[in-house]
């Protein structure tokens, strides 16, 4: 440690590895000091930015000045690098999905325990503003008791043309984006899961899923549709949430959206029938404007430590991790269940999840 900052080396200096430099910059207790990548060009880029570069992972691990290894390689090699780094006495931050299967995470956690080193997964979308707003809305019962939610990310650009298209590297959209949406979902309810069904999309003809739709029912009655798509030229809203007193929608990353709730100060006014196609309907008419309130989406006030500040506090024994490994393990088990449900075209029940 120099100048009270833990020295961190990034292993895998691609898109996300290099973005971590930006993310860690404001940290007062972590400093990116070096980089290792299997591709020379990536190391040259790192050297041009003034980072020390290493010729091998072994060289990183035998460098006693290195406190933390951050893994941002493709998914298939996270486990091996994590176990080697923990065994060498380094604390580890690992990109998501931490591993391709849940048993591999168990193996890493055993080594983390034996070596008494911190292992934390970068589930950064727990800090996303849209998610924090929905979490706050549910906790504060702003639309009553939430009984159904839909969480989606959709694009029209297919799977990025790299390892994400290949099974051997842990590719596919369920592992890539699904892991974020499912991680968020499990934080929105304290309930266990009752049943899961899912369909994987393979429209693009890749050997891995280019998206998926899953339907998850919790034991407390909450239902959720979680969907990722890469073939959506027009996308559906990021969040659609129904409660006993209203509905909330967040359309996009710009947080555009609204909340419509029953007005507690006004007696319910019957809606007037509307013309719908060739008929009239009162059932499908919007709620009357007099008896509902239309509220804006407001940013949630979050006092959460940043991921990196929390990581340092955990190393120093001052805080509990904000991303707990047991939670990450549960998400991986849910992903395995979704793969199984899709393959069997079944509704899987009686899950220990
Ligand atoms: P990328 O292909 O852009 O970068 C991966 C880098 O790792 C490449 O430079 C490659 O040469 C290097 N590499 C491959 N094998 C290696 C090894 N054995 N040792 C050292 N370096 C190796 O991929 P990416 O998009 O940066 O994704 C990397 C990881 O980050 C993945 O796990 C991905 O899921 C994750 N990721 C997370 C987020 C997030 O928001 N949390 C966003 C993007 C990617």
UniProtKB/TrEMBL annotation:
Residues in Gfo/Idh/MocA-like oxidoreductase N-terminal domain copies: 8-122
Q: Which InterPro entries match?
A: Gfo/Idh/MocA-like_OxRdtase_N, Gfo/Idh/MocA_oxidoreduct, GFO_IDH_MocA-like_dom, NAD(P)-bd_dom_sf
Q: Does the keyword Oxidoreductase apply?
A: yes
According to the record, the signal peptide region is none
The UniProt entry, under Gene3D superfamilies, shows: Dihydrodipicolinate Reductase, domain 2, NAD(P)-binding Rossmann-like Domain
Q: Which domain of life is it from?
A: Bacteria
Residue limits of the GFO/IDH/MocA-like oxidoreductase domain?
134-248
Q: State any single GO MF term.
A: oxidoreductase activity
Q: What keywords sit in the KW lines?
A: Oxidoreductase
Family statement: Belongs to the Gfo/Idh/MocA family.
What name goes with this protein?
A: Gfo/Idh/MocA family oxidoreductase
Source species of the chain: Paenibacillus sophorae
